[in-house]
Write a structure and sequence with these properties.
Rossmann fold, 8-stranded mixed sheet
Length: 949
């Protein structure tokens, strides 16, 4: 036969030859719908006496042996309840998928193309034998299939189910890709692995891990599950850093080879996604290799909880191999229905324990509910007038030229109606609420998170897609608004591998014998920050000391080697250094590396350990403090207001207003505030910048066309071009402080620069000994320096924590003072400090003020003498005995009186000297005049020098 000509597939094809007949028997038996008749359909009544359904799974597997008992119990319970199908019975035929080694092989790998061609050739050669076997088993009309158990098998059979329109209800095939539109007749009656992987991703995020290693079966089931895990981790900025696929038929030696490679990787978070049949073998090898010691984390998917529930108690050796592991279990809420079934379990399994007792796992609960789900769907199908009928599909007979005789298979006419009714079922079963969401997944999926401790397990929390991780059962949270905030995510403490309760860090340095290659800028200037020690391979400087101090705070040894980056002639570009991390040349980079946007897109930085930002430096000159220095602070209009205000509140004004205004007759302290206003204002204005520069800041620099200097290798160049719009022809690279000073002294007209743009850290060192230059304007960027690591490197997080500790304990400041303590000129150059104003600075002001006061007093004195002569000379007869002292005292008394009192007294005395003056005009009464006279006398006696101030 031509089959044996496929020599390239030798041994595999021979295995196919031994098993292919049984494959055909199984497929044709399961999907034969109606008796073989040339296009004739088989019909039955609306409510037949029985409905035939099939099932296929591996009876001897951890899942299958439990599912078999559960399915039989469910069929019995449904058939004994006439309220479900109205008297119609379910007739279940179960087929053991393990009777053929071929299906086990299918679960292990996909066919290669050449294998498939040889297999199809062999089918053609066996057409006569195949037809005989097919006719033997086509005795029933099957309307639905419960199964298959394997996700790999489900992929194959779902294509046939689509063609024959027979619903497949699988209680164990968890591959997420089976939910696609490609398989409309596949109905998953268990939890989708997509949700299990979401739960694992939430656990990884909860413990603040970043990288995991995936160990998985290399088939549809394993690859699809790990692909889903990768997607879920990516949404949380985590990743699978290493994938370790295993052949499902891998030997212990092959498993060991794979796990040895895992031990050499960086991550210690291991996710094991495999089958119950050989998952324990993987863990046994891991225990042998020391991978169950402290520092490792194993997260097993729900295959491990299935083994523990089914085969418990495990041997002491097996339990030792899984101590401290975390695993998931599909969550089924407690209920009376579930408790009753659990209590029945021992009786149900009594006659099936030939190979030893076994427990009830969650797959058994879902298998039981699957039968009830199908029964309710069939009941609704009949209620809507559905009939069980089949018809031939002409397309099947045309496949492969008719050589396969697929015309023996028929289409279930009511398949779509039955499928819709199954998807619309809403019932409460052993597993809780059984209904489907819009994406055909079970409603509100949830998992238990359990920890293997001692001889058993402990539930440390729950996960649901409604509220994430919680120590409360999911159903208690459904009545509350969903809350996925980090503060609401909780799990109980875990006993990790190695019998420790301390959360593992989750990673180590790879065991490949190579120290970290850390790039360091080989600077030629400002070596106070970082510089290579001449003649050695060592570095020194502020940045190096910070790095070493942080490394010493790490809870583990850090092997590293510092490698200089740059030619030693000019300062290197830190941006180029950062790019070499992404290229794999360096494992990290330390030094004066500014944290800027473009760099953060390609690497991760630590917490900033030094604050900096771009500033403008320009030459400045001191303003001379001459006699008219006081004029500089104010503009002309300001001086007019200030001068007027000065005259109003000055002492001379007080003197002028003293005799006329009651407000100026109070105690002296009432006038202190007024007198001091100008003094305070002028002082504050004069104690500002006393250095002058034609460049006032960033804006004036941008608007000019003068050349601008920048430090060679600094990001300032790209920033000025891209962000400030300065043409690159204006930019001049400078390599040292000496070149800075020379270019600034020359100026833009003599081949130098008008100003310099650089980071404040360098500028402060530059200005510490060069007081003829200064920062002008404000700092116009804010950034810091940090150490660079590859994206998602856990070392970046640990180093950030160490830097924060250095800041908190004061070591960071001490390192700063050691290397960057400024000299005496620093404060003057960096902050434009002022000289103290001398007495000569105000001499002109004092002269003007003195002249104004003298003129005002002179005018006032002349006026006062004239008033005294008019009012007092007429009242007091000249006496030869009068002395100058008595006249002076009288004058002072006169000056202290209010002017209106003087005028009133003078008017009264004039009236007294004129007795003939009419009293009409408002003369005062005698008593009033007497009272006023008494008051005036008392007032005159109380006046003394300095009174009334």
């Amino acid at each position: 036969m031509s089959f044996w000509n496929c020599s390239d597939s030798g041994s595999i094809i021979r295995q196919f030859a031994m098993n292919v007949i049984w494959v055909l028997v199984l497929i044709l038996l399961v999907f034969s719908n109606g008796h073989v008749s040339n296009g004739v359909s088989t019909n039955s009544s609306n409510r037949p006496e029985e409905v035939k359904i099939g099932s296929m799974f591996s009876f001897n597997s951890a899942i299958g042996k439990v599912a078999k008992v559960a399915l039989e119990a469910a069929i019995e319970d449904v058939n004994s309840n006439p309220a479900i199908l109205g008297g119609t019975k379910l007739n279940l035929t179960m087929y053991d998928a393990n009777f053929s080694g071929f299906l086990g092989m299918v679960e292990g790998k996909h066919f290669r193309h050449e294998e498939y061609l040889c297999y199809m050739e062999f089918l053609k050669c066996l057409k006569n034998q195949r037809r005989t076997l097919a006719l033997k088993f086509m005795e029933s009309d099957t309307v639905a299939i419960i199964g298959p158990q394997s996700s790999v098998t489900a992929h194959v059979i779902s294509h046939i189910a689509n063609e024959l329109q027979v619903p497949l209800l699988s209680f164990a095939a968890t591959d997420p890709t089976l939910s696609s539109l490609q398989y409309p007749f596949f109905v998953r009656t268990t939890q989708n692995d997509q949700f299990q992987m979401a739960a694992i991703a939430d656990i990884v995020e909860y413990y603040e891990w970043r990288d995991v290693i995936a160990i998985y079966a290399d088939n549809d089931f394993g690859r699809s599950g790990i692909a889903a895990l990768s997607d879920e981790l990516a949404g949380k900025r985590c990743q699978i850093s290493y994938k370790a696929p295993l052949d499902p038929q891998a030997t212990r030696t092959e498993i060991m080879d794979v796990l040895v490679k895992v031990t050499l990787a960086e991550s210690r978070i291991l996710v094991l996604h495999t089958y119950p049949a050989w998952g324990l073998d993987v863990l046994s090898v891991g225990h042998y290799l020391g991978m169950m010691d402290s520092g490792y984390v194993w997260i097993a998917t729900n295959w491990l909880s299935t083994v523990l529930d089914t085969d418990s108690p495990l041997s002491s050796e097996s339990m030792d191999n899984i101590q401290g592991l975390i695993t998931l279990r599909m969550y089924t809420p407690e209920s009376e229905l579930k408790r009753n079934f659990v209590s029945r379990w021992k009786n149900l399994t009594t006659h099936q324990m030939a190979n030893g007792p076994f427990g009830l796992n969650t797959y058994g609960l879902y298998a039981y509910d699957t039968v009830w789900l199908l029964a309710h769907g069939i009941d609704a199908f009949f209620s809507q007038g559905g009939n069980i009928s089949f018809s031939n599909d002409s397309r099947l007979s045309e496949l492969n030229g008719g050589n396969l005789h697929l015309d023996a298979l028929n289409i279930f006419d009511g398949g779509k109606l039955l499928l819709n009714n199954i998807l619309n079922v809403n019932l409460t079963g052993l597993t809780g609420n059984m209904r489907f969401s819009s994406d055909r997944s079970l409603f509100r999926p949830a998992f238990e998170v359990i920890n293997v401790i001692g001889t058993g397990v402990r539930t440390i929390g729950y996960w649901s897609n409604y509220s994430g991780l919680s120590v409360l059962p999911p159903e208690t949270l459904y009545s509350k608004p969903p809350n996925r905030s980090s503060s609401s995510q909780n799990l109980y403490p875990v006993m990790w591998p190695g019998q420790t309760t301390q959360k593992p860090r989750g990673w180590v340095f790879p065991n490949n014998g190579r120290a970290l290659r850390i790039g360091v800028p080989n600077r030629v200037s400002y070596c106070e920050f970082v510089g290579e020690v001449p003649g050695t391979e060592m570095f020194k400087g502020y940045c190096i000391d910070v790095f070493m101090a942080a490394v010493n705070l790490l809870p583990y040894a850090l092997p590293f080697k510092l490698i200089p980056f740059g030619d030693g002639i000019k300062n290197p570009s830190c941006t180029e250094l950062v790019h070499l991390i992404t290229a794999g040349v360096y494992d990290a980079a330390i030094g004066d590396i500014a944290i800027i946007t473009n760099r953060t897109r390609i690497v991760d930085f630590t917490q900033p350990y030094f604050e900096s930002g771009l500033v403008v430096v320009a030459p400045v000159k001191k303003l001379n403090s001459d006699a008219w220095a006081f004029l500089r602070p104010f503009s002309g209009s300001m001086w007019m207001v200030t001068g007027g205000f000065f005259l109003l509140v000055g002492i001379v004004v007080w003197i002028l207003e003293h005799r006329l205004n009651d407000d100026f007759r109070g105690p002296p302290r009432r006038q202190v505030v007024t007198i001091l206003c100008y003094t305070a204002s002028l002082t504050s204005i004069l104690t500002v910048q006393q250095l002058s520069s034609p460049i006032k800041g960033l804006e004036s620099l941008r608007m000019s066309n003068d050349p601008i200097g920048y430090q060679q290798g600094s990001f300032a160049r790209n920033y000025m071009i891209s962000e400030l719009g300065i043409h690159e022809s204006r930019l001049i690279a400078l390599n040292s402080p000496e070149e800075y000073a020379e270019a600034l002294k020359k100026g833009p007209k003599n081949g130098g620069v008008a100003a310099l743009v650089d980071e404040r850290a360098y500028v402060e060192l530059f200005l510490s000994s060069r007081c003829e230059f200064s920062i002008v304007g404000q700092e116009f960027t804010k950034n810091g320096w940090g150490f660079a690591f590859p994206r998602d490197s856990p070392l970046a997080v640990d180093m950030s924590t160490a830097i924060l500790k250095l800041s908190e304990n004061g070591d960071l400041q001490r390192i700063h003072d050691k290397w960057l303590m400024s000299s005496a000129c620093s404060s003057q150059g960096a902050k434009l400090a002022v000289d103290r104003l001398q007495l000569k600075s105000f001499s002109g002001l004092f002269i003007v003020c003195g002249l104004v006061c003298f003129l005002a007093l002179l005018v006032y004195f002349v006026k006062m003498v004239g008033q005294y002569i008019r009012h007092y000379s007429a009242e007091e007869p000249e006496s030869s005995g009068s002395s100058w002292s008595s006249h002076f005292q009288t004058f002072l008394t006169f000056a202290g009186e209010k002017e209106e009192d003087v005028k009133s007294r003078s008017k009264r005395r004039q009236l007294e000297r004129d007795p003939n003056r009419s009293n009409d005009g408002g003369m005062e009464s005698t008593s009033a005049a007497s009272n006023r006279r008494c008051t005036e006398m008392a007032s005159n006696r109380s006046v003394s020098f300095g009174s009334g101030v």
